[in-house]
Amino acid sequence: MKLLAFSPLVIVAAASLGGNELQQPLQPADFSQIPHLGFGTWNLDKANASDAVSAALQAGYRHLDCATIYGNQKQVGRGIEVGLKKANLTREDIWITSKLWNDHHDPSLVEEALEQTLLDLGVDYLDLWLMHWPVASSQGQSKLDYIQAWHAMESMHMTRK
Fold first, then answer.
1. What phi and psi values does residue 18 have, to the nearest 5 degrees?
2. Each residue of 18-47: pLDDT tens digit?
3. Alpha-carbon gap, residue 103 to 75, rounded angstroms
4. Is 146 an active-site residue?
5. Of the listed 61, 70, 125, 146, which one is catalytic?
6. What is the pTM of this model?
7. Predicted pLDDT of residue 114
8. Residue 46: how many other CB atoms lie within 10 Å
9. Cα torsion angle, 130, 153, 28, 160, sign
């Protein structure tokens, strides 16, 4: 299954690699399409997350802010599905942002994280996929190490996976 992870309006970020080397940002064609007001899904209880997201879409929200660490993306995905139908919208009518969590900074885990996010949300692509925090955590250890994860995220964008 080939997954389209990003729309053409994706990642804009620059991070210092150390020394004089700077990471080059990917420039979207036009960011004017991002809805200015977004509905945050952090702290939505699983019991009402689907209803809340559906109601938000029906009320006019067109930007959803999600993240793996929120632990509710499956419920948010159900809310997206129901809300789109009830509001007579398509996926292309809304902007979805999600985030890579710290436990998937290992480059070999980045694609898996993206695929799981897409599956949980029930969508074929994200409009914006951010790195939630530049600190990798694995096996109880944390370290400031995001460059390789960032490059792996770029590769998902470049290959449209």
1. 105, 155
2. 444 455 555 554 556 789 889 999 999 999
3. 21
4. no
5. 70
6. 0.78
7. 95
8. 12
9. negative
